[in-house]
Write a structure and sequence with these properties.
Mean pLDDT: 81
Shape: elongated
Strand order of the largest sheet: 3-4-5-6-8-7
Number of strands: 8
Low-confidence stretches: none
Radius of gyration: 33 Å
Structural class: alpha+beta
Strand content: 15-25%
């Protein structure tokens, strides 16, 4: 209910200040499959990152564009791509990352075996497969400005004066008294 204030303007209702609802987690069945491991989720670049203990294992993505990158992103390394591709034939590099080959790989949501492949990846994580999951590096600290030291004043440097073209004075016309 909106209550009028003394100024006559309507004051916002309590519902407006209620906690903002979070967007639904995309591909939530993945979290259910990992439930015995107690996964944690965190927002990451508009996706949902999934952590098991200290490792990031997945990023769940369902965004309007580009559609080709929607699905379950696997946190892995290039050395494991060939072995994982044997198990997940539709797995590929993520286009939105801009490089041909990245450590991250996607099980695309538009693949015919998407749910089956995602659940197989969850089973590998539950079994402790070292090919999926990365321990994130520490965040880089911002470089602080160097400490200010006492500044000694330097003698000002004199700049050479630019030579100006001589100004010609117009001959003043003198009037003769009449």
């Amino acid at each position: 209910m909106i209550k009028p204030s003394r100024s006559g303007r309507a004051a916002p209702a309590d519902e407006v200040f209620a906690a903002r609802r979070r967007k639904p987690v995309p591909h939530e069945f993945v979290l259910e499959a990992l439930a015995p491991l107690g996964p944690e989720t965190r927002p990451m670049f508009g996706c949902v990152a999934v952590y098991v203990e200290d490792k990031i294992v997945f990023a769940l993505r369902d965004k309007p564009a580009p559609l080709q990158d929607n699905g379950v992103w696997l946190a892995t390394t290039e050395e494991h791509h060939a072995a994982l591709r044997a198990e997940f034939p539709n797995m590929r590099s993520i286009a939105v990352l801009g490089r041909a080959v990245t450590g991250w790989q996607v099980l695309p949501a538009d693949a015919p075996d998407f749910e089956e492949a995602a659940l197989r990846a969850c089973a590998l994580i539950r079994a402790g497969d070292p090919r999926i999951g990365k321990v994130p590096g520490e965040r880089r600290k911002r470089v602080e400005a160097p400490a200010k030291t006492a500044v000694t004043k330097k003698a000002p440097v004199k700049k050479a004066a630019a030579k100006k073209a001589p100004v010609k004075k117009a001959a003043a016309k003198t009037r003769r008294p009449r």
